[in-house]
Amino acid sequence: MVGQGVARAWRRRVLSTSAGGDRPLILFAIQELDSGGPDRVFFELLTHLPRDRFRLGLIVGKGGGRYFDNLPADVEKTVIGGGRYPVRRLARAIDAFRPAILFTTLRMNLTAAFATMISRHRPVFISRQANAIASDFAILKQQSRIKHRLAEQVTLFSLRRADAVVAQAGDMAAEIARHVSPRQRLATIGNPADIPSIEALAIEQAQSVAAPVGNPAIISVGRLMPQKGYDILVRALPAILEIHPGAEITILGDGAQRDTLEALAQNLGVSTAFHLPGQSAQALGAVRQADLFVSSSRYEGFPNVILEAMAVGTPVAATKCPGTGELVIDGETGWLAPTIGEQALAAAILSALAGNGAARAAAARRHIERRFARNIIISAYSDLFGDMLATHA
What we know:
The protein is an alpha/beta fold. The protein has helices spanning 4-16, 37-48, 87-97, 107-118, 133-140, 145-161, 170-177, 195-206, 230-243, 258-267, 283-289, 304-311, 342-354, 357-371, 374-391, and strands at 25-30, 55-60, 76-79, 101-105, 124-128, 164-167, 185-188, 217-221, 248-252, 274-275, 292-295, 316-319, 335-337. Helix 5 runs antiparallel to helix 6 (145-161), helix 8 packs across helix 11 and helix 9 crosses helix 13.
């Protein structure tokens, strides 16, 4: 969708949907709106932000997907294509739609940083950072130091281009604060949880999905990639089996590390207690039936899987890494391994299995109700957008 003909079509569509008076248009931009954590956050915002304050539009590089297909009818959706970084196409869309605010995440942060340099219209630019920057690039630099050192600098440049940056947790905000200027607004806003809906979906799914195996049954959900630390979880399994010989670990997800993890489990002699059934559309139902949810991540932005495990009442043990501390509070809402390593994680898991899981699960649910309920997070974003519009009027 490029060229002046497309731009004219976009303008006609903007005019046809601008009957909402003087409500400012917020244009969301993400590569696709399918099933990831940032995708879900955008879906929640596009669905529940107040229509009496804002008009909402969406730019994606790739159309279709779980959340894309279920957006409210009043959200203007445009697919621009253009590969990983469609800078010129996004610039044309900005000029066509003339939004008051451009709100981006993931690769669209970098795309928008350059697109707003060449677009004629200059909206208020707000970017949402998805992961801890230093931790993310520390792993990537192991693959190609020069390439990813440059990519890190470009990422920091894109943050400095924004008028406001949203961090998902306090430790992420502290990191970003070292790289942005005083003129920029830095907001810390977690991810929303519609707890009744999450719980209802988990109950529905549990009726048709088999419970995870093991006594106790330990579960995790995520991509099989270095960030998630599943190699650490596999290495922790022998110590767990010494105390709980019937324990088994199931990870719902897929990724490049599947063969590596299976080989590691085989070498450690724990392959019969370690399962990789792949991705599941009924993951919540499985998590609800597990005895313990484990996050072994080396870093996170804001782990939605932990949020959802807490919402469905499953006790949680996790590594102490960027992104988890505002959810898993050791001794209160879960069990936290003080360092990232198999011994510390095994100790946290064993403490969880020996402790009062029901009490901490209940405390975890109260915690997310107070801090991350959907209405609280939607209100925080609504206030941010309103403040930025007033500041840049």
